[in-house]
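hey so i finally got around to running both of the ones u sent me last week. sorry it took forever, my laptop kept dying halfway thru and i had to restart like 3 times lol. anyway pasting them below in the order u listed, first the sequence line then the structure token line for each. didnt double check formatting much so if smth looks off just lmk and ill redo it

first one:
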Amino acid sequence: MKVFADTAYFIALLNGDDTAHARALAYSRHAFREIVVTEFVLLELADAFCRPPT
């Protein structure tokens, strides 16, 4: 079974301060399913972690 991952999942996985971080980590450790994403999810993820020029 394939699972579609939203941007919120990856943000929670990478950001330890996110309220869903523990759940995202638990899912990634115990669910052995193929994760499907789109280029739009990756673009949103990059945008979420970029800093504006100073």
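and the second one:
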Amino acid sequence: MGHLSTHVLDTMNGCPAAGMTVELLRHEGESLVPLKKLQLNADGRNDGGPLLDATTMAAGRYRLVFHVADYFRARGVALPEPPFVDRVPLDFGIADAQAKYHVPLLVSPWSYSTYRGS
């Protein structure tokens, strides 16, 4: 059964990004429709399981927005204003609603990377 999940690792501190805010939106034409806004748990994941499950998963274009600067400020990291990495918008496509899509983010105040996980 298809589903969408995410996981964020704080590479500055070598730990999951517990407490980071993440938004999930769906592209509909030129508009973005908000689907979820959540805070990551102690493992850097969504407490409620997948962001989209077999009943809500649909092919299409999506965006995850990771609130990186807010997370690091809450951890006491002194950031410049404006921060180098503030919010990370990640646009991606779901071509097969029956497949598993995992979108990890590795992040520091100065860099980030992502990939399609398993």
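quick thing i noticed on the 2nd:
The domain at 3-107 is CATH 2.60.40.180 (Immunoglobulin-like).
anyway thats it, ttyl
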